[in-house]
Amino acid sequence: MRATLTLCIASVVVGSAMAAAPQADHYKTFRMNGQPSNDGSRLETVIFSEDFESGLGDWTTVDVAAVDPTWHSSTFHSYEGNSWWSGVEALHGYASHTLQYLDTPSMDMSALSSPTLTFKLRYATEAPGDEPTGYDCWDSCNMWISVDGGDFVVLENVSPAYGYSSSFAFGNEFGMGTGIPAWAGTIPSFVDASVDLSSYVGHDIVVRWAFCADGSYDTSNNANIWGMIIDDVLITDGADTLLDNDADGTAIPEDFTQASGGSAGDFWELTTEDSHSPNTSAHCPIAAYGMADALVTPVISIPEDMDCWFQFWIYNHMLDADGNDDTYVEDLYRVDLTDDGGLTWDAMFYDYRDAGRPGYTTWEHYLPQTPYNGNIAMSLNAYSGMDVQIRIRVETDYDDDGGIGEGLFIDDFEVIASDVAANDLAMLQVIPAFPRTEGFETEVFLQIGNMGSNDHEQVLSWLFADSELVGPADRVDLPSLTTAGTTARWTPAAAGTDHELKAACDNPEDSIPENDTMYVSPIEVLAPGDYVLSYCYGESANYWEDNPVMFVASESELNMTNVILNSVVVGLYDPDEDTAGVPITLKVYADNEGTPGEVLVNDSFTLNQFGGQAVLLELPVEPAVEIAGDFWVEVVLPDGYPFPLGGPMIWNGGHYAMGDYDLSFSEGIQARELQMFANVEWFDSVEQPVAQPELFSLSPAFPNPFNPTTTLRYAAAAGEQVSLKVFNLQGQEVVTLFEGSATGGEMEAVFDASALASGVYFARLQGEHHTLSQKLVLVK
């Protein structure tokens, strides 16, 4: 029984005179190191766990709303000297879920006739937009008044008038209902504000400035929002002054007072009434309206350069998720994290009770990819090497229209680290397509792997040829533990056997840079008119038997017709070290409507011993065969001595091969050899050699380096559609200098980089069959 390899070769393009036939028994060895596995397997270590069986330990519980008053005298964005500011100095702004009051002393208005309150006003809060029904702003500020010791009500006859009629922070977060007007958004500088207090003559009053923030967005999300500031507060009645406060010490009749609102109590507890394992869990009952109660972990040290996440078990019986059916969550829980000892908290995600959500009817494991929104990976990678605390915060609204329920239960909280790095991109394969011929643009296929746990979008990679930067490859998205292919373009400048390609991932955060770069060398580039056609598709196996396999590039790719076949190269492996004199037969057939037809070549060879080696064997076709149309190749070997290696590769319709060179690359990375190709020349149907287009050039830019302009001269055949564009190092197009039909002579374009930053740019001349690029250096 014999092992056979049958291939169909599609004839294609125009070339020069025939090259000399290659010598028989031309062996090249290559390494067969395996490519690293990327199956997502990981070694996991629990670095923190808590089952609450021994109590809370170093965990704490806190009423988040029970904070100290934050209004104070400050120079932060002040009017002059000090001003009254609602924020926190250490935050340079405000935190979520806060309600802060600044009150005047009680003032007797009985002896006044037409009192007026004036002050300087400035604020910066979350921008309004996309509020739930009934509200038109989020975080906000306003003024209130208490008359004769009564409840505070909104002071509405203010100037400037409130811009919004219903604040979500006041109304929903702190239970005041819809219809609370407020200032919101940002005014960039101080304005004059005033209130006519004439209607309060004859009464005792207290005036209040209030700042209110909801639970989802604050200064930690946007450094440009920081709260409310007032200054130079006066109440006058003609020439008489009833109140004067400038935050710098003047306080007539008395100084202002500060207070916080919204505290409902701290209700987290340990319970044995329900748990995941074995007896005790942490429980937050729904004990009050307007709760904001948090269960806080002790300090947890996150290891460096490892994938790290947290998970826990949950049973959620907070019934009022959306009692009024307005599709806005009412009772919910949030998960936050701090890396500064509790000064600021980063929002991780929030979730609520609903069919399909974890813990809806029983205990369920709350794992990565489970959260409703936000950090759904529950990843701690952004805090590598830091000490953090995590809190689970229960929030309730101000009614129980959906029911109350038993509350929220948490158990078996874990932080887990994996040996998978957080950020690790690897260049896995670099495969230049055939043909590789001087002056002929070819594609280079790059396979990039995301070996880390973080997802990466629009990953950029670079291709170098003979140490010169060719340009960027197309960007790819790489979710965790996946691979993706992309393409760069390369036009070899000169024939030879010692060319080298290098491809590198662009990831400044990569924790394992050793695998970011792959080298491929030496690469043989043929003279103009000579082309090597690669094995393009077919069945992949350790050996072939009666399996027809297609060979080479298609006519549409190279726009060529007839071919001269010089040789066929096969990748082989002989497992028997004692084997010598192995017979091999090369047959070439004309195509007969898709099947092998007339025999054009039938040559036999005796192979020298190469036992235990993987080799590339070049079988000469002597004399070279001129073929019009498709043709087939069959390589006949004795069964098992030796057998062909590897498998085919097609990527995005292109034909690629690795095999006519040895590989040099970073640790542990090896791309598969591709094992069969043909060395051919092309000519046209009337046997008149046609050279590659001579009129396609991009001359060196002058000057280069430049500031701020440089001139590029280029040429292409008359009527050829060309474009001349400039790209930055990120592969983004900066400018199109020309796009249209070439004139047939030399053309000129000026690149004006006056508006660009210093750095490296690339000019790319793209034609119908060729692409040329060059590096431009802008120095300002």
Report on this structure.
It is built from two helices and 55 strands. It has 780 residues and is an all-beta fold. Strands 5, 6, 9, 12, 13, 15, 16 and 17 form an eight-stranded antiparallel β-sheet that branches. Strands 2, 37, 39, 42, 44 and 48 form a six-stranded antiparallel β-sheet that branches. The longest helix is centred in the N-terminal third of the chain and has 6 residues, at 168-173.
List keywords for this structure.
single chain; 780 residues; mainly beta; eight-stranded antiparallel beta sheet; six-stranded antiparallel beta sheet; 55 strands; 1% helix; 46% strand; elongated
What is the topology?
Layout (H helix, E strand, L loop, with lengths): L1 E8 L16 E4 L14 E7 L9 E4 L8 E3 L8 E3 L12 E6 L3 E2 L7 E9 L15 E8 L5 E2 L3 E2 L8 H6 L12 E11 L7 E10 L13 E11 L2 E6 L5 E2 L4 E4 L8 E3 L9 E4 L7 E5 L3 E2 L5 E11 L14 E7 L7 E6 L12 E3 L20 E9 L11 E12 L6 E8 L9 E9 L5 E10 L2 E5 L3 E3 L3 E9 L5 E11 L10 E9 L4 E5 L13 E4 L3 H4 L3 E12 L8 E10 L4 E12 L6 E15 L2 E8 L4 E2 L5 E2 L2 E2 L7 E3 L10 E8 L12 E3 L10 E8 L4 E7 L5 E9 L4 E7 L6 E8 L4 E8 L2
